[in-house]
Amino acid sequence: RKEVEQDPGPFNVPEGATVAFNCTYSNSASQSFFWYRQDCRKEPKLLMSVYSSGNEDGRFTAQLNRASQYISLLIRDSKLSDSATYLCVVEGNTGKLIFGQGTTLQVKP
Amino acid sequence: NAGVTQTPKFRILKIGQSMTLQCAQDMNHNYMYWYRQDPGMGLKLIYYSVGAGITDKGEVPNGYNVSRSTTEDFPLRLELAAPSQTSVYFCATTPLGVHQPQHFGDGTRLSIL
User: Fold this and answer.
1) In chain A, which residues have their Cβ closer than 8 Å to the Cβ of B104?
2) Which of B3, B47, B52, B85 is the most buried (most CB within 10 A)?
């Protein structure tokens, strides 16, 4: 089993739609979870950290499910500018952060 | 305040050549990292450093070397370039620990032909 797994997509959604991505992880002792956004041919940028109680930042909501070992990212009211690849990042078995392969989102007009 | 600066931005190498990818940061962060990202894949950790004079291997260190003589600089060296090292290389930093979110440079795109 990979340490961090994401559905690569692409997810094609219309503007205004709600879309959710999941990311599963193997290290049950993980304490650090993040979502990054990566635009085409650009560096990853931190979108949000994921806290145990769940957290929200505007149209973005992140949740952690420790029992099932996954984190999720929900985007409401999708904008064209949300089109990007979303990377899940989790503390791995060696204590260092592991990046998922990313989920590509395309928001269509 | 430039943050994390990587040079060069693009480079084409011939098989067997060597080169050094530069990474400099002006945020006084202790931790620095080198990643590679192949098309459609996540980032793989090559090497990291927890402070000047200290480096350690990541997930994919073979074919690379690093040094950390100052807090600001963390160069990555390819000694004998191979086609398998064609990738995008990102340098990143965190202030205090490996579990903190990382701040990335804008990458070096390297092709080996």
Assistant:
1) 43-45
2) B47
